[in-house]
Amino acid sequence: MTENAPGAPGASYAAAGVDIEAGETAVELMKEWVAKAQRPESVGGLGGFAGLFDASALTRYRRPLLASATDGVGTKLAVAQRLDVHDTIGRDLVAMVVDDLVVCGAEPLFLTDYICVGKVRPERVSAIVKGIAEGCVLAGCALVGGETAEHPGLLGPDEYDVAGAGTGVVEADELLGAERVRPGDAVLALASSGLHSNGYSLVRHVLLERAGWALERRVPEFGSTLGEELLIPTRIYALDCLALIRAAEVHAFAHVTGGGLAANLARVVPEGLHARVDRRTWTPGPVFGLVGEVGRVERGELERTLNMGVGMLAVVPPEAVPAALALLAERGVPAWRAGEIVPAGEGLPGGAASLHGEHPA
């Protein structure tokens, strides 16, 4: 047995790097923001072992299906940590979760978060939660609970990671997806706010590592600094998509995340049909062209990695296009008809999507 040296202090959690008091302070600071992200079905508040949600609200459904999704923010966190700006990352987290839920037509109900830090800095944790709460408000869902864990030795003092899990509900006979898609359907593109939360490993490699650009560098094409452009929060489409379902017939949505536009759209295209998207219908924002130009990234690689200016796609019958576009314009979401669903064959594989044409200069 190895004994402590004479006079050496006894071991403690604090000496091992975990500050319980700092964690308690963080909880106090975040209470204000969590209180703003509630729904009528929310039960209780912070401090319990589990978040509570009144499931009696589901009794109004004939056959409710619960939908669940979980995600993180990825290496966009590295940009936030380098800039010491932490109040937007939470909105990215919410967007990545709730916009996956709404794809099947589900209304997001509640979300829980997990924040893992190297060292609890209460104000920083509170800023992260502030962004998560703001995102939940924008998505119409409740933030019912979460966990903040301190992992000294695993993460550096200024490093952290975030993840979230959400639950939504959809009527069984109103479930959206490939089963509803028909030949002749139109593909509507909903504009992204920027890079969203995918492809940052490529973006950071090209602009920060290879080109050596500073995050504080002002980029004329952006009208802002590089860091400000890279931290633009992901657009949250959940309430817009739900409003679209109420206003017009919708057959499917596709959330454009990792893999790019074509790969995500293909997930809602049935065998025997093909989705053709016309690049001539939009011009990607400057950041996409800049990454391609500075990094000499081939177009195919860009389109497999980045959203290229489109964050969500809606597949609707052609007669629903005017009402759908009018509704989205009214809600402040730039959208346009970008393609159509056609029979597979003659070089167009079934259950797939492809991009054609050239973006306008």
Automatic annotation (TrEMBL):
Signal sequence bounds: none
Pathway: Purine metabolism; IMP biosynthesis via de novo pathway; 5-amino-1-(5-phospho-D-ribosyl)imidazole from N(2)-formyl-N(1)-(5-phospho-D-ribosyl)glycinamide: step 2/2
Domain PurM-like N-terminal intervals: 65-170
HAMAP family: AIRS
Main localization category: cytoplasm
Pfam family of the protein (one): AIRS
Organism this protein belongs to: Streptomyces boetiae
The PurM-like C-terminal domain, residue ranges: 182-345
Keyword list, A-Z: ATP-binding, Cytoplasm, Ligase, Nucleotide-binding, Purine biosynthesis
InterPro entries documented for this protein: PurM-like_C_dom, PurM-like_C_sf, PurM-like_N, PurM-like_N_sf, PurM_cligase
PANTHER family with a match to the protein in the record: TRIFUNCTIONAL PURINE BIOSYNTHETIC PROTEIN ADENOSINE-3 (PTHR10520:SF12), TRIFUNCTIONAL PURINE BIOSYNTHETIC PROTEIN ADENOSINE-3-RELATED (PTHR10520)
Enzyme Commission number(s): 6.3.3.1
Top-level taxon: Bacteria
Reactions listed under catalytic activity: 2-formamido-N(1)-(5-O-phospho-beta-D-ribosyl)acetamidine + ATP = 5-amino-1-(5-phospho-beta-D-ribosyl)imidazole + ADP + phosphate + H(+)
NCBIfam families: purM (TIGR00878)
Family: Belongs to the AIR synthase family.
Subcellular locations according to the entry: Cytoplasm
GO MF annotation: an example: phosphoribosylformylglycinamidine cyclo-ligase activity
Entry protein name: Phosphoribosylformylglycinamidine cyclo-ligase
